[in-house]
Amino acid sequence: YMVTTYSKNISVVSGESFEADYALSQIATPVDAKITKDNKFLIVTACDSTMLNIISIADDRVIKQLDLTSQGGDIVMDYDNNKAYISTPSASTIYVLDTNTMTLTQRIRVNGRCERLSLNGKYLMYVDRLSDNVWSVELGNNYTLRNLGTFPNISKVLFNEGKVYLASRTKSRIAVLDYNERKLITEFATVEKPVDMMIYRDILYVLG
Prior knowledge:
The protein is globular. By secondary structure, the chain is mainly β. The chain has a four-stranded antiparallel β-sheet, with no helix packed on it. The protein has a four-stranded antiparallel β-sheet with strand order 7-8-9-10, with no helix packed on it. A four-stranded antiparallel β-sheet has the order 11-12-13-14, with no helix packed on it. It contains no helices and 20 strands.
């Protein structure tokens, strides 16, 4: 299931195909979409909409809508704990969705306009687009907020083994911070205009 900011359709692609099998039409342009651990449901946020749509993958029907009261943004999945975290940037809020019951169980107030949401273990990271501050929400510490510093034009934030990786799209560089000390460890050049990162088996992969 693929979404873009240029279409109201969600493209459905099977297997290793290079073309979509069909398009799942939406009322509003999707912002983000994620599949649940059991591969039964698709969770979708959309532009100019406060609704969080829950779509059944079996028949592509919207089976439930949850009102976030503000437009939803990024969705990150916690498959180990059957949760999803959904940002509402204009409301400075991150919602917690129980993916077993499809109910909103908590509302986390944060600082600034929360974008570029990422989840790494017990640390929820985001960038405040109003100030360029990078923040951490410590999920195992009563949702304590921690300011990691100001870093302009960050496209992706990752946390791994006490280090924070920040990708700058405009500089095509990655900065590495010590989380506890909040100090720069190193900085290096990467692919042009990085937009995403992941760490797998101790290797950092960067998409540009």
